[in-house]
Amino acid sequence: MADNDEKKKTKSKSAIVCGYPISIFFIVVNEFCERFSYYGMRAVLVLYFKYFLRWDDDFATTIYHTFVALCYLTPILGAIVADSWLGKFKTIVYLSIVYTVGQVIMAISAIHDITDTNKDGNPDNMTFHVALSMVGLILIALGTGGIKPCVAAFGGDQFEDHQEKQRSTFFSIFYLSINAGSLLSTIITPILRAQECGIHTQQKCYPLAFGVPAALMVVALIVFIIGSGMYNKTAPQGNIIVKVCKCIGFAISNRFRHRSSSYPKREHWMDWAEEKYNKLLIAQVKMVLKVLFLYLPLPMFWALFDQQGSRWTLQATIMDGDFGILVIQPDQMQTVNPILILILVPVMDSVIYPLISKCKLNFTPLKRMTVGMLFAALAFVAAALVQIQIDQTMPTFPSNTVEQTKFINMVNRPLDIHAGDNNFILEPFTANDYLTFNKSFTLDLGANSSYVRSIKNGTRSTIAIVESASLLEPVQFMDITAKPEQGANAIRFLNGLGSDVNVTVADLEFGSITSNNASDYVLVPNGK
């Protein structure tokens, strides 16, 4: 049976502008806003997990990639629903509503003031925020994945059979809108995240970073619905994936039933489906199975590619991002991808590939894929080399079984110090390097100045030796146990004077520091 006999379209009159139905304008704008919404939310997601939900790097990476995997799994569901029941238009509208609700929930989940009852800047009910976040992400995955196979195909449905050239141009513009939305969102949302906002305390503005993508998704939905009266709407015709799976299943079961040697062999195992399915479908399934072999390496490529939203972003948090003329936020790293796509696609198609062709080199699409994957592998070699350089600048922090302690002499004379098995002399107003202790130790500072120090595993501390009533006393201050983010320096001041001191450096306030005490740490951005 001819497929054309099964096609039924609800046709609406759409104005023609320069040979194109004006309905595609609504589809392109919808796609731009939706991609802005998705990539904008995703750009800041792993940092939201790490800094707002307080998850470690490994768990944040796991949840991030689980979400991305779900976004790429749900298109199968969306395609089946659209082709079998609702049709493309209704599927896009209904799942866009789900998508929008998910984005709004994500924005609400990032408002720390909702559960910050003591107004200290930290949510007091993290379970509430985690639960909202997970609900929001599941709805977003259903929405973005569900509409993914429908929007481009729905755009193609707006053209008549004689408009092949216009349809081809539409898909180019459609792809451009995807990358334009991705580019702008990965620039803008990290900037919004870096702002500080809040009712009681000022924190990184994740509500705004998620709220703007949510607003763009609302715009996408409204724009798409406005164009409703202009669309050509194809009725559901049955999902091809279901047909293919049933055809393959029947071929396997039929071959198993006729496994006896008394039955004649057939040229291809799919030919065992001829009793039920037409030869055209069987031939098409054979071609699909051959092509699938070429796609076997692609999961590995995308597994690496999507690391730029997780591990590469986390790697960027421990660098300063300072390029001299501008400072790049860690979550803006992903901006490079759409920029390179917008630059390199026309360059490769218009310059590189024609030059290769003139050199009489048979640079087939398969070879291009191979070269691209080799470059992807080299990219991760480069990332590994960067990480090696980062590790060389990282201090050795204590493990969970030891404590690190350093000593600073706040007395105006040399001191002979015995700390456990360590004996050394500290000059006035100097400090030694960190010493490692795995058990309690005795700190001997001289006559009548002997102290037993217990340790707290996994911590760092500084012990200041001060003089009080002619006796030497140790005063302990806890140190940080992680490198500050984004290349910043963590600075504090120790007051060894006999009176209180107010310390201000440029626009940084360290507050009033009492005698023989230390200020809180203050982060100096970008190491300046």
Shape: elongated
As a percent range, the share of strand residues is 5-15%
**Which structural class is indicated by helix and strand composition?**
alpha+beta
- Helical fraction: 40-55%
Task: Tell me the span between the first and last alpha carbons.
Answer: 73 Å
**Low-confidence spans: pLDDT under 50, at least 5 residues?**
1-8
Computed Rg: 32 Å
Mean pLDDT: 88
Quaternary class? single chain
Q: State the major sheet.
A: 4 strands, mixed
Major beta sheet, strand line-up: 10-7-13-14
Number of strands: 20
Number of helices: 13
Task: Outline the structure in words.
- The protein is α+β, with helices and mostly antiparallel strands and 528 residues long.
- The protein has helices spanning 23-43, 45-52, 57-86, 88-109, 126-156, 164-194, 206-226, 240-257, 279-294, 298-305, 311-316, 336-358, 365-393; strands at 9-10, 16-17, 20-21, 196-197, 203-204, 233-234, 403-409, 415-419, 422-426, 435-437, 441-444, 450-453, 460-468, 471-479, 489-491, 494-495, 501-505, 508-513, 517-518, 522-524.
- The strands form eight sheets. A four-stranded mixed beta sheet has the order 10-7-13-14, with no helix packed on it. Strands 9-8-11-12 form a four-stranded antiparallel beta sheet, with no helix packed on it. A two-stranded antiparallel sheet has the order 1-6.
- Helix 3 crosses helix 5 (126-156).
- The longest helix has 31 residues, at 126-156.
